[in-house]
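[job 0412] stage=fold_complex status=start
inputs:
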Amino acid sequence: MGVLETAKADSTVAAAPLSSALPQQVLTTPAAVALMETLRAKYGPLMFHQSGGCCDGSSPMCYALGEFMTGDSDVLLATVGDEPGAPFYMSKPQFEYWKHTQLILDVVAGRGGMFSLDNSEGVRFLIRSRVFTDEEIAALRAAGRI
Amino acid sequence: MPTTMTKVHPGAYGFPVTLKKRYDNYIGGKWSPPVSGEYFDNITPVTGQVICQIARSKAADVDKALDAAHAAKAAWGKTSGAERGRLLERIAQRIEDNLEMLATIETWDNGKPIRETMAADIPLAVDHFRYFAGVVRAQEGSIGQIDAQTVAYHYHEPLGVVGLIIPWNFPILMAAWKLAPALAAGNCVVLKPAEQTPMSIMCLVELIEDILPPGVLNVVNGFGLEAGKPLASSPRVNKVAFTGETTTGRLIMQYASQNIIPVTLELGGKSANIFFEDVLREDDAFYDKALEGFTLFALNQGEVCTCPSRALIQESIYDRFMERALKRVAAIKQGNPLDASTMLGAQASNEQMEKILSYLDIGRQEGAEVLTGGRQAHLDGDLSTGFYVEPTVFKGNNKMRIFQEEIFGPVVSVTTFKTDDEALEIANDTLYGLGAGIWTRDMNRAYKFGHGIQAGRVWTNCYHLYPAGAAFGGYKQSGVGRETHKMMLDHYQQTKNVLVSFSPNAMGFF
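[job 0412] stage=fold_complex status=done
writing structure:
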């Protein structure tokens, strides 16, 4: 559990300044930002699509920007990482079940992630989560974000 | 020897198996080193230690495999169903004759208990090869008499070359689910095992390599990005079959749309296992069976697409049922997967364990109550570096993320319902529809739920049975297509229609 606590502490530090009181829907740990930089240097601009289902399900899949076709069935949750940032998407039906939680993009040792660009790096992205407070939910609702 | 016997390592512990230091690809009937000369370490989740090296293939290796498959497809596609059936039966027999060896290797590769690989994974793989060896003999086309002088003949033809992308939770069995129908239908295949469990399939190929003609079966190992993607997106495959998760499933459909080829996708689930109050009407064998049915969430460490990971218990029996159910969970013996009495082994990889722990965290945050477990399990000795999680039971409600997402760990989320309507509503309140279970002594209720649940399979008074001959596949976001049934032959075949006129007369248009 120490790992989880450390990651959460890191992610709080890594939170970018808020443009308003609106809570961010996706945070990144420093390790995630660093991995994104490594991948960006190799593959160019990036994007994420949050997976669901079995095996590598629940993994945040990272692709070269435009590799994965998004559409009306997806929600853009945030743009993450250093400028210019990577759009982070999830399918709309899945978001209905996830929207009450803040996602924290982290990195752990391992491999997998299918066609995700982190697949061959010996580490991979992992999503941790935090339940939004009632006040945060109200603010996100008012802003039409959830 | 006695001093080294205790070391937990392949060959030194459990049934003696001899592993190679390195496994190359199997292409065109030959063992083929990766073009790049690169290999990656294969880690056993039992101890977290490296047990062999595996070819780290790239697009060039996939191309070689596709060359071999295309070179073999014409001759293989012309073999009779009887001949293909005979060869599949030989494969089945060879696997059966080497049951303990393959079961042990599968346990080293994946971390699942030896009692499961001995009693389920490998025997079911045998069953699937036998089943398709049989049904291909019985497959027939059809003849339609369109009118008095026009006849429509329908023949089955193989698709040609198919790409199979296999998951890590049942490496040999999932390969068998796809290989048996694809080969029976007359296709040549290029198979990409999961990089988390790349070894056992190569040991299977070593066993059966003399049976199939060169090029019919090709296996290319490597990472998903480097080897899986070139296979899934190749214009030289006529179909892709994939088991995995939704985002990659969508990406495979996207590549398939560019090549205009069919796909079969099995993308997971969040299966409800429903226990009605009449289960407790008697304290008998059936009640005992239902308690086992609840506890099956821990089968294969929960790394099953149809893991009964949501238990719906009728409120009127909740306390009594859960008292017994939690005792059953407490009796789960976790330990060395190679020991015959071990019931719960290792998660397949470090990242999988991390993912499960992240869900244990979010479950608590959402206010779910931990009824038992809830932590990483720390085992002793050589196992201390393996990947183990305690069997965990949460109580919560169906809107929580632990009720909606496939944790793929030994974790069940329990909730209650009052009425049949409420049970059905909760069962269907999910993105997925792969499996479900119902437990009742009332046949009318069983019938109603068997039809009412939007899932490809509704286990009724049973769970986690996977016989060949019962179709398996998903509704909703759980995927496209079916497996483990003779209809799979169709999934791997073209339909050829020859439309014949027996009339000597012109139609009269021109």
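[job 0412] summary: The mean pLDDT of chain B is 97.
[job 0412] exit 0
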